[in-house]
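Input structure tokens:
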């Protein structure tokens, strides 16, 4: 009776280049069955600021053989979406025979928003058999990015005598977060010089306009400070529930 079959598989392209691989098929007992997963796939959603070593999901497979033990392995990926470089690792739970997937390194919504993890489980037998399940991890955004101005200083001119409401400049900031987390509002900060009283800013567009008609002989230059603020509670440490600015 044949217990092992070896085959050579050849792949070739249109340019007459080829490569080969050896395929070995091992014949096992008809009663030897691979482990059975409790679920064919698992779906989980985690925020990007989930701490390292946090458990995100527990998976479980059982063996129908006399020896109920199984071993789990998180398959290596080839791209970030399949866990390369490593962002997750697997840890067996000896009490109930399940396994947990935990966060190995910091997640970043702005870099990778969705992961597809392939988990392998193998039974204990003379010829071990394996089966697979897929864990889909959806990463959600948190407000961890600060809205930064495209330029640290802006210089502008306005003619003396120009009417009130004359556009002076437009400032612009960017925030890598999405939705409300990245919605930017602009304000002019008040200061002791009083220069801020002479200008208004559109909180959404960043356009600065005059509130007065200027006389160069009285005052020739003004300095104002503009703040950019995002639209939700910050997830950065030390912000005490305030938005990022």
């Amino acid at each position: 009776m044949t217990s092992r079959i070896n085959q050579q598989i050849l792949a070739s392209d249109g340019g007459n280049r080829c490569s080969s691989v050896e395929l070995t098929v091992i014949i096992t007992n008809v009663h030897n069955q691979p482990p059975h997963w409790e679920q064919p796939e698992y779906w989980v959603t985690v925020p990007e600021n989930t701490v390292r070593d946090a458990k995100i999901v527990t998976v479980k497979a059982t063996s129908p053989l006399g020896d109920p033990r199984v071993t789990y392995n998180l398959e290596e990926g080839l791209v970030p979406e399949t866990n390369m470089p490593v962002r997750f690792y697997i840890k067996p739970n000896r009490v109930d025979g399940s396994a947990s997937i935990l966060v190995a390194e910091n997640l970043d919504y702005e870099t990778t928003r969705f992961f597809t993890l392939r988990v392998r489980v193998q039974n204990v037998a003379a010829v071990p058999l394996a089966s697979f399940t897929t864990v889909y991890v959806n990463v959600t955004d948190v407000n961890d990015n600060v809205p930064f101005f495209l330029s640290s200083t802006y210089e502008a001119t306005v003619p003396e005598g120009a009417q009130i409401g004359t556009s002076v400049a437009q400032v612009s900031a960017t925030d890598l977060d999405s939705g409300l987390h990245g919605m930017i509002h602009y304000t002019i900060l008040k200061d002791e010089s009083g220069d801020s009283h002479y200008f208004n800013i559109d909180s959404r567009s960043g356009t600065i306009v005059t509130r007065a008609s200027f006389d160069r002989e009285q005052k020739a230059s003004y300095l104002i400070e503009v703040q950019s603020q995002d639209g939700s509670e910050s997830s950065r440490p030390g912000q005490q529930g305030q938005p990022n600015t």
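The chain has no helices and 17 strands. The radius of gyration is 31 Å.
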